[in-house]
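tool_call: predict_structure(chain=1)
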Amino acid sequence: MATTERSTDNIAEKSGEDVCCAKFDPARLDNREIVWENKPFVKDGVWCVYYMPLNFGSMMARAMGKIEAVGANCSDEDFLMLADMKSPWSSTVYFAVTKDDVLGAEMVKISGTFLTKVFEGPYKDFGKWVTEMERHVKAKMGEGFDVKCAEMFAYYATCPKCSKKYGKNYTVLFAKVA
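tool_result:
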């Protein structure tokens, strides 16, 4: 069995190739309005240099170890890991879970209405995606909506290894609009 960054015992790809990330269906999250009321997440974080994470693998192992120990992990279809990207030097990461309490983990509950948009391509296009997401939000919410103040999260649907195997590199942006 292959080692995995997301889960110590879950190989999502059934084709025989070792991968750690489930194949992502962009239709599930593209151009959606999602409403959460006290949705539970495990909160962790990574150090970054200009938004590039330095300790992502160890953070994933630490968080997923705690989540799996209490059986709070989501199915592959519902897996969600959001990064807040508020600083070029660190990022808070939120893992959706199925329980309100995960032993040894910091828990947060997120509420609100979010607009989503799926992007595909290299991470170097991230700035373009944010600009496109801002246009998307303004189109949905109206020109008067202050999109610069909207809380935004990124969901990197697969790790670099799995995106290479699948041939697609998806990122989903979530913008909190209410």
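agent: The helical segments are 56-69, 126-141, 160-166. Proceeding to next step.
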